[in-house]
Amino acid sequence: MANLIDIKDLHASVNDREILKGINLTVNEGEVHAIMGPNGSGKSTLSAVLAGKENYTVTGGSVTYMGKNLLEMQPEERSWAGIFLGFQYPVEIPGVTNVNFMKTAVNQHRKHNGLPPLSAAEYLKLMREKLAVVEMDPAFSSRGVNVGFSGGEKKRNEIFQMAMLDPRLAILDETDSGLDVDALRIVANGVNKLKKSTNATIVITHYQRLLDYIVPDIVHVLYKGRIIKSAGKELAMEVEKRGYDWLINDNQ
């Protein structure tokens, strides 16, 4: 089991306000890690920093991804290297269809890896296979990216995008936000079907219910920019029953 990403003493700020205050986290191939914590603890900031989003300033620490310095890579380079970020609030892109958006993304990844672009027939075959993973109607492919989609459809579309790009490391930022039970099941099943021994997933969530479907190997609780507790999936159950106060009080 090879190390995929190694985060050491990571500090980061937004608008000169320090949010991450020394994150230490190692994720190996084949693992699913869940990150939980109260609002404002730094969960989404961590995902944004790893994806290379603008307006987030790393002020200390290191992130090594597949042996390379992740912090020196541009966002598109991180994507080409196999990092995928699923947004809490997927954006709409009017005027750009799903089929053209994903064809461009897939072929850019292939170009980076020295592979020829997929033919139209190859692409359509791949797209149909991956739409089936998240139980999406093929008609969605001709619609604008997320335009007019319900909350559940947007999240399913993101997992479809993840399936098409086949990342080494998927970071899912509150993918369960706003989902009903059926949509949650479909999205989680899609994530599970994409799990391999050579990839890994970081699931950021408020609620234990998602972890009934996507079973984590390790659960971390983030509070005030630091991981204050790591344990097996039983930690999520404990948080569901007792909240965060007992952990926070132990770390005051």
Automatic annotation (TrEMBL):
Residues 5-249 form the ABC transporter domain. The keyword Ribonucleoprotein does not apply. The keyword Nucleotide-binding applies. Gene3D superfamilies: P-loop containing nucleotide triphosphate hydrolases. It comes from the Bacteria. InterPro entries: AAA+_ATPase (IPR003593), ABC_transporter-like_ATP-bd (IPR003439), FeS-cluster_ATPase_SufC (IPR010230), P-loop_NTPase (IPR027417). One of its GO terms (molecular function) is ATP hydrolysis activity. Keywords: ATP-binding, Nucleotide-binding. SMART domains: AAA. Belongs to the ABC transporter superfamily. Ycf16 family. This is Fe-S cluster assembly ATPase SufC. The gene is sufC.
